[in-house]
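[Q] Does anyone have a clean structure-token version of this?
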Amino acid sequence: MIVAGGGPAGWSAARACARRGLAVTLVDPHPDRTWRQTYGSWGDEVPVTGPDALDPSVVAASAPVWAIARRTHRLTGSYAVLDTPALQAALRHDAVAVVAGRVVGVEGGRERAAVLDDGRRVPGGLVLDATGATQALSRSRRRVGRAAEQTAVGVVVPSAVARRVTGGRLTFMDWRPSHGRAGWPTFLYAIPLGGDDWLLEETSLARRPGLPLRELTERLRHRLVAHGLRPGEIPLDDRSRVEHVRFPVDTPAHRSPTGVVPLGAAVPLVHPATGYSVTRSLATATRLADALATRPDHGDVLDAAGRAVGGRAASAVHVMRRRGLDVLLRMPSAEVPEFFERFFSVPPEAQRAYLGAHDDVRGSMRAMLSVFVHLSPRLRRHLIAGSLLGAGGDRIDQNGY
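[A] Here you go.
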């Protein structure tokens, strides 16, 4: 088996399969590169038990969750921030053969091989495409218009500094417009990183095209100054203390060559509202490895792998969530905070069903209905229009954003 891509999705699958005695080769252009993204999830989604359990030490911090729209809301459950170096180390497995290179294609029949950009061939049978949103092994890279992107700029500060902004609360979303800018609304995402560090991040939810990082930097600076921080306490000029985020949330499905199964963002089933994918990749890796370990026949392997990774239920839930993305993209800027005020007012089980439960069709339908019932008539009209009209086009607000 070959895994193309050495991010969390690729290494999760490689580790789970190797733990079951399967021969695995992982190919990545920079296999020793350190992951620098910050990963978070709902606490109960981190697999600290089960066949592919991670040591609890991969959780750098866990705390109750708060959200602010028009009012302040305490959300149900806890939020876990992962220790990225610890996660990367935990997903490594000595039985996985690692090859430095970039997979650009596949060839052969039953005895399939990955073709690298320098002409090398790596034999391995089944190929797992974990190349992310680039979908390197896609037969069709067709994209209609610009991708909707989530963008963010964050700065790492000591906990005492962060407390003056957040009151010490882990803040999932703070929609108050203290960034001082008109146009497309953004929110503050504030999380502890473990030790004495906190990440304060100005975030633009899905938007087509994504809000520029320069604009987010200035919004974050203005927001933190408005909360009483001095310029010297906001190290936005120190690259080691700054995080930039940009990723697509509506990557179109692609047609993989025979014998290739996509993983992670290459599927693509990234949550279009949150961008969460890491804990989903971990859960998928366990299902995939269990399926492959019990299917010695090549044809059965392909079928089992496809069902373990995607499946009809997960695809149906993703279609519903993409409709939710369409609603957001078409919603007038001034209405977005009000929409989330209504969302955070629905029953907790409905919130979690929408933000998690990736293959629970009934739960997702109930959650979306619950949100609809709680909306004002004006927001209901926006929801219906977004659902009927489909993906929103490019959005240009005043000030060019």
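[Q] Thanks! Anything notable?
[A] DSSP finds eleven helices and 16 strands in the chain.
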